[in-house]
Each structure stands twice: as C-alpha cells, then as structure tokens.
Amino acid sequence: MRLRAVPPTIAAFTVASLFRMLPFKAASGFGGWIGRTFGPLSRRHRIAEDNLHKALPEIADEEADRVLRGMWDNFGRMMAEYLHLDTFDRLVADHDDLITFEGVDQLRAVLRDHRRVIFVGGHFGNWELGPLINRLLDVEYVVVYHAIHEPYIDRLISKCRSKISRRLVDNKNGRKAMVAALKKDASLCLLVDQKPQYGPLVPFFGRGVKTTTAPAKLALRYGAPIVPIRVQRRGGVSFKISVLSPIDVSEIEDDDAGVEKVTASINGVLEEWVREDPAQWHWVHRRWPDSIK
To answer: Is residue 143 within a helix (H) or strand (E), and if so which, with residue range?
Structure first.
C-alpha cells in the first residue's frame, strides 16, 4: 500500500501550528534540526550541491558538506522564525543584544542627503530581518517580494512578514508601486540574488547569469542611492544586520550600459558575501543557466 503525500496546505498548517506553540528560541532550534535532517534528502539538495561546486569549484568535499549542512540549518531555523517575527521587532525596540546593527550612523548620513534609498540584499541568514534597520530609524519603506504559488502558504508568509514590513508589494505587479513609493519619498527593500524571468546576463562568480535590473534602473532614473543590507546569523537566534556603503550612481549614465554596470556592482557585493561565508547563502535556486533540474 502506497502512502499518499500530505497536501502542502495541511503540512504547512501543521508545521506552523507546532512552531507557534514553541518559544521562539526553541522553535528556531527545532527548525534547524528539521532542516539539517531532512533538507539533504530533498531534490533541492542536489541543486544546492551543484550550484556550490559551480561557484566554488576549488571547495573540498568535506567543506562542501559543512556549508550545505549550515545552509539547511539556517533555512530550517528561518522557517520556524517566520512565526515569531514580531518577537524580533520587540527585540529591536528593547535594544536586545541578540540583534546588533552596524553602519547605522552611515545610513543616517545617507538619508540626510537623500530623501529615499533603494536597499538591496539577498537570501542570507534570516533575510526577512533586513527591514528592521528601517524600523529602528523610522524610515518609510516598501518591501518587494515574490509570491508563492500555494495560496495558503503565501498568505501565511505575508501575514508573518507584515509583523516587520508595513507595506508589501508583489514583484509581479510591483513596478508601478515601486515608482509611486519613490515619488512619495519612501525607500524600497529588494532581494536581488535569484534568477528573474527576464534580464541581461551579468557576471556572477565569473559566469553570466540573468539578473534583475530593477534597482539599477530605478536608482538611475530617480537618483536614489543603492544601499546593500546584509543579514548574518551569528549562531542560534543571534544576528548582525549591516548597512554597507552605498553604490554611487551619480556619475553613471541612465542607459543600457549604465544599468548593466550598476547591476554588475550589486552582483559583486553579493558574490563577496557568499565567498566570505557560503553557509549563510541559500544555494537551492537554479541561479546559473545550466543548473540541474
């Protein structure tokens, strides 16, 4: 007798209910165990392994195993932490040392010179925590996200995100909303490390990959600096959120060559982060044209 697969909606509801009942540190730890235990058994593990060796062909097998275990641990923890994002918001308000910020004064200086900025980041650490820097400084902002195909799971994640992010925009219909936000002096938060449906081939680990040009186009059109935000898990539920120096676009022409130049600069920042700590990045997406299916 064959076992029937559990529908994704029921599985998501069951797991979410379990994580909600646990204190957030316990939920994160349990999520990490689930990630480390079951992530390597999934088909996504093969994709992650293939991507890792494409990007870092010199990596030894033992080190690759450590990186991927760390990635699955981080992902499992993050899934559990979704249900406790309001806890992190309170930690910021209480200045708890579980979350530290770096570059806050630098960001204040940028905001004094510019009414709004375009924050860019990637799927590192608990990437949902990046907007906390805006809550700390009381910056008006819009978070652009990619909707999930399963409606219940998408609603659940959006509800969790809303505990940190006041305004959410689906990137499928987001261009008008992003332009409107910038015109109203609101900042934008975008994750830009996944393959879009359309986009030029821009270098990433020495190979051309489809890359979104939205931040570059908007920055050049509206004169908004691009500010990279990096989220690092320091262990358990301890995080460091760093504001990096802005990518200056003031001397770059608003044309195709300028857009690709700015986009390549963004990819360069992301690549540097991956090389510094590859276990923090989520390797499971088909980032390269020849990634395995």
So the answer is: strand 141-145
Burial class from Cβ neighbours inside 10 Å (0-12, 13-18, 19+) for residue 197 reads exposed
Among all chains, which residue has been given the structure tokens 């308000």? 93
Query: What is the model's pTM?
Result: 0.90
Question: Any idea what DSSP says for residue 24?
Answer: H
Backbone angles phi, psi at 88, to 5 degrees: -65, -35
From residue 36, give the alpha-carbon distance in Å to each of 6, 73, 101, 138, 239: 21, 5, 28, 37, 20
pLDDT tens over the chain, length 293 residues? 344 554 556 666 777 778 888 998 999 999 999 999 999 999 999 999 999 999 999 999 999 999 999 999 999 999 999 888 888 877 776 667 788 999 999 999 999 998 899 999 999 999 999 988 888 888 888 888 777 777 777 777 777 777 777 777 777 767 888 898 899 999 999 999 999 888 899 999 999 999 999 999 999 999 999 999 999 999 999 999 999 999 988 889 999 999 999 999 999 999 999 999 999 999 999 998 877 76
Residue 72 CA: distances (Å) to CA of 38, 122, 192, 289: 9, 16, 21, 23
HSE-CB of 120 using CA atoms within 13 angstroms = 30
On whether the CB atoms of residues 149 and 105 are closer than 8 A, the answer is: no
Phi, psi of 150, deg, nearest 5: -75, 115
- 196, 185 in Cβ contact below 8 A? no
End-to-end CA distance of the chain: 29
Closest CA to 125 of 18, 278, 269, 11: 278
Return the C-alpha torsion angle 135, 173, 81, 291, nearest 10.
-130
Alpha-carbon gap, residue 92 to 132, rounded angstroms: 7
Strand partners, 210: 201
